[in-house]
């Protein structure tokens, strides 16, 4: 019997949809149809960083189950974990037995369905309008190409317009208490 202590971990983004995401977000809108944790890496995540992401998902889920038990509610589903990496973390993919996803475009990797963990190698995404919002999160040539695509779009393009989308989003600056931000139709998030 051993007690486990852990330092406080912070999620980059915890997303809880209050309505379907706007289709103008392309593949990103399909990713955000249910509660999710998003972790972003400008460089490729190391195996330790990947395990930290898994730990965050498991700890968040454990806390949600503890609260549900206390309130005599059914346990929720674990949130989806989306790790977005500018590059392809080959060591993580091989070491964690991630497989190319059959349900998502090239660049999406996943573990078994019960794990609810995905890795998106932004560098590998196909260059399509549907992947543009994700490719804007890339680095180097990928980011520059995506930016060029944005600049070539007409001003009336739905991707470029301010979108009103209700959601509950929690963001974090590592090492500080994350502020909770409730976004409503009245004061909407700009996508």
Q: Which terms summarize this structure?
A:
alpha+beta, 8-stranded mixed β-sheet, disordered C terminus
Describe this structure as you would to a colleague.
- With 191 residues, the chain is an alpha+beta fold.
- The chain has five helices and eight strands.
- A hairpin with a 6-residue loop joins strand 5 and strand 6 (117-121).
- The longest helix has 24 residues, at 47-70.
- The chain is globular.
- Mean pLDDT is 83; it is low at 162-171 and 173-191.
Global Rg:
17 Å
Q: Give average pLDDT, whole number.
A: 83
Tally of strands? 8
Gap from first CA to last CA:
48 Å
The description of the largest β-sheet is: 8 strands, mixed
Our count of helices gives 5
Oligomer state of the chains in this structure: single chain
The residue ranges in which pLDDT falls below 50 over 5 or more consecutive positions are 162-171, 173-191
Q: What is the helix content?
A: 25-40%
Strand content: 15-25%
Structural class: alpha+beta
Query: What strand order characterises the main sheet?
Result: 4-5-6-3-2-1-7-8
Pattern of helices and strands = EHEHEHEEEHHEE
Shape: globular
Give a short synopsis of this structure:
This protein has 191 residues and is of the alpha+beta class. 27% of the residues lie in helices and 19% in strands.
Question: How do the helices and strands line up, and which of them pair or pack?
Answer:
Elements: E1 13-17, H1 27-31, E2 36-41, H2 47-70, E3 80-85, H3 90-95, E4 99-100, E5 108-110, E6 117-121, H4 132-135, H5 140-151, E7 167-171, E8 180-183
Parallel strand pairs: 2-3, 3-6
Antiparallel strand pairs: 1-2, 1-7, 4-5, 5-6, 7-8
